[in-house]
Amino acid sequence: xxxxxxxxxxxxxxxxILIMPSGCALESFGRLKRGNWYLRVGRTxxxxxxxxxxxxxxxxxxxxxxxxxxxxxxxDLGDWTTKEHLILDxxxxxxxxxxxxxxxxxxxxxxxIDQHGKVCGLYYGNAxxxxxxxxxxxxxxxxxxxxxxxEVRKGIRLRTRELVEGRKTPGSIVRxxx
Length: 178
What we know:
The chain has a six-stranded antiparallel beta barrel. Strands 3-4 form a two-stranded antiparallel ribbon. Strands 10-11 form a two-stranded antiparallel ribbon. The protein has a single domain, classed as Thrombin, subunit H (Beta Barrel), CATH 2.40.10. It is mainly beta and 178 residues long. It has one helix and eleven strands, in the order βββββββββαββ. Helices cover 6% and strands 44% of the residues.
């Protein structure tokens, strides 16, 4: 478990205590759940926030459908839709809390960990604004987008299947600890 800054600990968010002490190995997976506290440890920062229960649907089209394998070869994912959980962070200014960024450029791919030390998600990026059903642009201070680890693991397994002697292999299985 990474070290958690004092201002990011669960009690700062009124969510009990940090169960897993820093320095312990991350050994199991969990799920992203509405109302729970989560920690994101990235290249640029360590931030915490609360999963608010909203699922954002991302429809990957055009050039966004392409990814690259470890050898630099382009892989077309075809029509692909994912559902990302929104995680909100906040900071205190004076006597009130304001929402702040859950992540910065370079933090994509960060693990999202709960207070029990379970790896629950993978941070993708931030939602900075969106259009409401009434076609009104809503500005939102960088709510974090994270995919549940169950979906990440399922996606890895599906995308690592190979055709061997006319049959598909089961694909890679992700386990902890690495």
